[in-house]
Amino acid sequence: MKADKKLLGLLALLALFIETRPVIAQTLDKVRLGNSGTGINTYLLDLGRRTGIFRKQGIDLEPVYVSSGSLLNQALLAGTFEMIMSQGSEAMMMKLRGADVRINAVVANRFNHVYLAAPSITSIKQLKGKKVAVSRFGSGSHFQTNLVFKESGLDAERDVTVLQIGNSGARMAAILSGTVDGTIMAADFVPRARREGFNILIDLAESKIEYPFLSLHMLGGYSERNPRIVKAVIKALSETIRLFQSDPVAAKASIRAALRTDDQETIDYSLQRAVQVLDRRPFPTPGGIQTVLDELGKEAKGKAWKFDDFVDLRALRELEKEGLFK
Fold it and tell me: Is pTM, for the whole model, over 0.90?
């Protein structure tokens, strides 16, 4: 009887050890990652968390949504986040103004937005003298708006009135109500916009312009102190992109959750756009950085800025040597 009790005790101890061993073995690093926009970044973060890809890399990810890229980057400077995902132009703007911000990866090097206008507007030039919307001044939506008008021969500072309205959802509401006549818009809203009779004047995804559309960036001090975490987050993002592009069922579930919609046309369209834009090898491109420098013009004066001033590719290069992007 005593022997049986001893055996039972040993078995109980062994079971406890087996049950607790994975918890002891895998300590997770908490990462608060800020993000803005309603589209691709939200899909990826949802999919990577829900499928455990970030946890597999040792990251306890806490995504936090902020309604504007410019506000998001201010929060990064204030220490609210360890890293953020937003448009690379916003990170570069902060660098030009003296902040030690580094782009560590770019998961999309092409635009994914469209320029949307009221039913009565059929060309960008017809917006002259009208009101148009951006999220906030200095945001990625403001940058893209300036670029669209410049390419069309208009000056966004002189030829239109630019209003700070908020994220894509708020800008969609503004154009539906007639508060503004045009706005840059996330591709997720295109099916609804078409049903409402609005015109897509320009599809930026069709342009040949390189641009750091969705950038992972952080303060230089953080990346210097935490190279392993930076590498783990980029690896998790790359693996999530691979899953998103190869598993439409999982991808659509994330889109449905992120957009909070069951509209199949919107889900299918968003998936098609995201698959085309996402890069499994998430390196920033010299062409994309130059696009931003050319557009920022005045901000970039006073120094011969170059690609290496804005990027930190150490984690990406290590991952490439390890064969992750093959």
Answer: no
